[in-house]
Structure to design on (589 residues):
């Protein structure tokens, strides 16, 4: 796995690099701004870009725009966007961007939970999805606000499974998080897919996309 | 004018008996800071009293039948009154309306003199009615002219200038405030928050190493420290968002309204038709109107559908937040008062309608022509 880090705060950039190297991840390049990311992507063709949303010079959302542009240049590029705040608009833009690589959007401080962060890095690099639980919580809240009867039919446990699935976790990871067996998780997944009338999809990533599409739908 | 003749006549008679020597010539009277009567005025009064006393004494020494010194006293009193009036007129600072006030005071003095002359002459037929009617007509005409004209005529240019200055300085102050808030928000994100994130990262790495060492007690401590740091980051994030929401600065009002809608506990539909971006203060006021209205809706009419409409009409940004709840909300609610101040500071208007059965509508109009 060849990774590029784009972060303007040296303190954080070096911290993330050190963390990744400790876990055997190869960091091929580092950049401080959006221009740097695009240059590196053209030159190095990395597998994963970990990008801060706010970058110089205007410190608004250059990182996000650059990540989306980088995926157009190099479609297999997986992107893990780190942000200081949760913005559903940004998540939506990222999820609907071009490219075939994995997608992640996480709050910066999640880096502190080393195991979960490394899990997210590997998942996104492997073509999967990693959404911050805050992002998922907002999506679920938005769906709840529209008082969706199908969502109301879910049991509390099924809702937990739905949320973890939307974060991009695999069945095994969900089983570990909820301290249940893999079989139990599978049963919940099947049940909630039926209740939400979602097509049973093969593969973790497509399953995540189906759940996210459901949560984001305004119907 | 016939009136003028009446004005002059009663004054002429007593004037002839007046001791001229004591009258201070009209003109600039020495102005004293504390407004105390000056020396010339004191001398005038003293001489008048002496002259009056002399006349009275002469009257007492002679026949003593008809009290003629009353006319002497009247004349002296008039001269002192005229002196006072001139002095007052000279001391009054020159400003719009001064001439009017001096004229009115003179007319009043003339009326008093007329009545006094009539009284001293034996209070027979009330002949001063003619002169008094004349003064009243003059005073009323003058007053009508001045009062009808004063606002637009005497001070309209001053008012226009003042309004202009206030508008400019207020908008400048609001712009400065908006910039400062944005800077504080950035400082929070790029300063304290970055350090806290770096701290959680280091604690996380320490945690990972401790997991291998088997020192459970220390591991628990480090984990708690990291949780605390995460909580602090979360609080800073909420604080920064409350000051200046990043999505508003980055993407504009429509996207920010959309984000608020997604975050709300109520089902929200956003319908925005906006052109160029408004000034940051205007956008920010509109944003907080929407945020507050949505909070109120989800608090008071949970489950009711809310529609946020954003339009530009006649140089104003119009924000409309309408719910389909039962209505009957208190338009003077606490959160709305703060919003109203915020909107009015931008020369805008905030209208809340909440008739029973029609839902609650919050409408803000913010001038944004630039």
């Amino acid at each position: 796995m060849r990774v590029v880090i784009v972060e303007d705060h040296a303190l954080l950039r070096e911290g993330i690099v050190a963390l990744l190297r400790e876990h055997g991840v190869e960091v091929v390049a580092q950049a401080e701004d959006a221009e740097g990311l695009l240059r590196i992507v053209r030159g190095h063709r990395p597998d994963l870009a970990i990008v801060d949303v706010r970058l110089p010079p205007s410190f608004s959302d250059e990182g996000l725009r650059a990540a989306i542009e980088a995926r157009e240049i190099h479609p297999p590029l997986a992107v893990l966007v780190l942000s200081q705040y949760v913005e559903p608009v940004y998540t939506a833009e990222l999820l609907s961007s071009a490219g075939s690589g994995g997608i992640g959007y996480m709050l910066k401080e999640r880096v502190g939970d080393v195991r979960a962060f490394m899990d997210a890095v590997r998942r996104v690099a492997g073509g999967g999805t990693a959404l911050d639980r805050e992002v998922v919580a907002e999506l679920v809240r938005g769906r709840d606000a529209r008082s969706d009867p199908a969502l109301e039919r879910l049991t509390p446990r099924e809702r937990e499974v739905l949320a973890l699935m939307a974060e991009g976790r695999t069945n095994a990871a969900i089983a570990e998080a909820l301290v249940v067996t893999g079989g139990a998780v599978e049963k919940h997944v099947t049940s909630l897919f039926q209740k939400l009338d979602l097509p049973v999809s093969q593969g973790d990533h497509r399953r995540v996309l189906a759940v996210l599409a459901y949560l984001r739908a305004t119907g | 004018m016939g009136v003028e003749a009446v004005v002059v006549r009663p004054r002429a008679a007593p004037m002839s008996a007046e001791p001229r020597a004591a009258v201070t010539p009209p003109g600039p009277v020495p102005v004293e800071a504390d407004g105390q009567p000056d020396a010339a005025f004191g001398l005038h009064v003293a001489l008048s009293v002496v002259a009056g006393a002399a006349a009275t004494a002469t009257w007492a020494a002679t026949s003593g039948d008809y009290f003629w010194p009353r006319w002497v006293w009247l004349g002296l009193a008039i001269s002192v009154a005229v002196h006072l009036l001139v002095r007052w007129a000279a001391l009054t600072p020159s400003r719009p309306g001064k001439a009017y006030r001096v004229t009115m005071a003179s007319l009043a003095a003339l009326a008093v003199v007329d009545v006094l002359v009539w009284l001293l002459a034996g209070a027979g037929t009330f002949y001063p009615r003619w002169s008094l009617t004349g003064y009243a007509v003059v005073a009323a005409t003058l007053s009508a002219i001045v009062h009808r004209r004063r606002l637009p005529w005497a001070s309209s240019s001053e008012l226009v200038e003042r309004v202009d200055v206030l508008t400019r300085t207020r908008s400048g102050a609001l712009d400065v405030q908006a910039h400062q808030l944005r800077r504080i928000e950035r400082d929070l994100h790029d300063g304290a928050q970055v350090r806290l994130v770096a701290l959680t990262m280091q604690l996380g790495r320490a945690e990972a190493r401790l997991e291998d060492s088997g020192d459970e007690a220390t591991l628990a401590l480090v984990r708690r420290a990291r949780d605390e740091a995460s909580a602090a980051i979360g609080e800073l994030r909420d604080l920064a968002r409350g000051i200046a929401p990043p999505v508003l600065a980055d993407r504009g009002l429509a996207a920010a309204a959309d984000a608020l809608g997604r975050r709300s506990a109520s089902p929200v539909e956003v319908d925005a038709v906006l052109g160029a971006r408004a000034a940051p203060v205007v956008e920010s006021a509109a944003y907080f109107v929407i945020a507050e209205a949505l909070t109120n809706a989800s608090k008071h009419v949970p489950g009711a559908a809310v529609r946020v409409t954003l339009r530009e009409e006649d140089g104003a940004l119009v924000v409309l937040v309408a719910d389909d709840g039962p209505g009957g909300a208190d338009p003077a609610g606490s959160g709305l008062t703060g919003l109203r101040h915020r909107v009015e500071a931008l020369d805008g208007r905030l209208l809340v309608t909440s008739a029973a059965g029609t839902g609650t509508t919050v409408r803000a109009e913010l001038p944004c022509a630039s």
Observations:
- Residues 3 and 27 of chain A are 5 Å apart (CA to CA).
- Chain A touches chain B at residues 9, 11-12, 15-16, 18-19, 22, 54, 59-61, 84-85, 87-90, 107-109, 111-115, 117, 138-139, 141-142, 144-147 (CB under 8 Å).
- Chain A has two domains: 2-131, 135-216.
